[in-house]
Design goal:
Number of helices: 7
Number of strands: 0
Helix content: over 70%
Radius of gyration: 26 Å
Largest sheet: none
Number of domains: 1
Strand content: under 5%
Order of helices and strands: HHHHHHH
Mean pLDDT: 81
Structural class: mainly alpha
Length: 178
């Protein structure tokens, strides 16, 4: 073998090494992307699960939340503060989920489940009042999505509202949802 043959063999070996490195990097990027999506899903679940666990963990919170769904006008000062801050937290978590979904990091079926949670309170009198009072706190993209896709939509009859009594009261007194 000549020196030139060794040179060509070393070039081929270097090219094979570079190709192997590129394949490895590609696999790592793919795995990293999958992990980022899984982390996004977990973060959405963690935030919303924590919210649900604390939303009615005391009699005060449960009563304020119940009354708040019927409308914000009859709430006491502390109840109003609780309901508005509670719904701000929930809506902020759902806004975050919306952006993860829009960016492709949250599966469609998962987002549409959380979207129904958002719709279930926006479809109540208190939810509509809250949205009108606080929608300016949310991004224009999320606000536009809520107003274009959710506010004029109703949950299917077989869906559960946050509080079945709110739906039943709205049926008995339709002007309360106006």
């Amino acid at each position: 073998m000549t020196l030139e043959d060794f040179y060509f063999i070393s070039q081929i070996a270097a090219a094979v090494g570079i190709m192997a490195s590129l394949i490895f990097v590609g696999l790592q990027v793919r795995q990293s992307t999958r992990q980022a999506k899984a982390d996004a899903v977990q973060a959405v679940h963690d935030n919303l699960s924590a919210w649900y666990m604390s939303a009615a963990d005391t009699p005060f919170k449960a009563e304020a939340g119940f009354k708040g769904l019927h409308g914000l006008g009859d709430l006491s000062g502390p109840q109003s503060i609780h309901v508005v801050t509670d719904l701000m937290a929930l809506t902020s978590y759902l806004q975050s989920a919306f952006f993860k979904w829009r960016d492709g990091d949250l599966p469609d079926d998962l987002w549409h489940g959380w979207e129904k949670s958002l719709l279930s309170y926006l479809d109540s009198k208190g939810g509509k009042e809250f949205w009108e009072l606080r929608k300016y706190n949310f991004t224009p993209d999320f606000t536009q999505y809520v107003e274009d896709h959710l506010l004029n939509r109703k949950l299917p009859e077989d869906s559960r509202y946050w509080d079945r009594d709110v739906r039943d009261a709205n049926k008995e007194n339709p002007e309360s949802t106006a």
